[in-house]
Design a protein that fits this description.
transmembrane, single chain, 75 residues, mainly alpha, 0% strand
Length: 75
Amino acid sequence: MTEVLLVPGVLFVVIVFLIVKVMLRERRSRTDNFDGQQIERQHSAQARDVRAANSSIAVHNRFVDGGNDWRPGKR
């Protein structure tokens, strides 16, 4: 009886392990090329800008100047 439960259990663990391994490999290979790295840098910069815009002093300044959220572009 133990062998009957052991064989499907081992097969299930091997299948799950292989699926996780393939998923991690696909996730890692996304930024192997230069374009992927550039996209990740842009997303990181956008996230930093959003965090900076939502800081307490930035929110206070927007309230004081009437909510004018326009900023000149970066050069």
